[in-house]
Design brief:
Blueprint lengths: L26 E7 L4 E9 L4 E11 L3 H29 L1
Antiparallel strand pairs: 1-2, 2-3
């Protein structure tokens, strides 16, 4: 029996001409060629007042999604937990 939770991501493709601001709670993955069969991959998280660099993976080869996915999943879960904690704190203090 597989007890692995079903984790899905919402993905939106955007062009380089699209607005550069990442909406709060969203993660942007960007990648660029780093030579023959190599990719530099970067993940950023949008926050209400800024965006932060989550991780950078230079020189990945082949299918790099299995390398990137765990970090993205952990950040999404942490963001959800912090959002819930903020809601609870606001309700307790108001």
């Amino acid at each position: 029996m597989d007890n692995t939770p079903n984790r899905t991501f919402q993905v939106t493709w955007s062009s380089r001409a699209a607005p550069s601001r990442i909406p709060p709670g969203r993660i942007r993955l960007s990648w660029s060629s780093a030579g023959e069969d190599l990719m530099d991959v970067e993940a950023r998280l949008g926050l209400p007042g800024a965006e932060v660099l989550l991780a950078r993976w230079p020189g990945l080869r082949g299918d790099w999604s299995d390398i990137v996915r765990p970090t993205v999943a952990e950040v999404m879960e942490l963001h959800s937990a912090l959002k819930l904690a903020t809601v609870v704190l606001n309700r307790l203090t108001h």
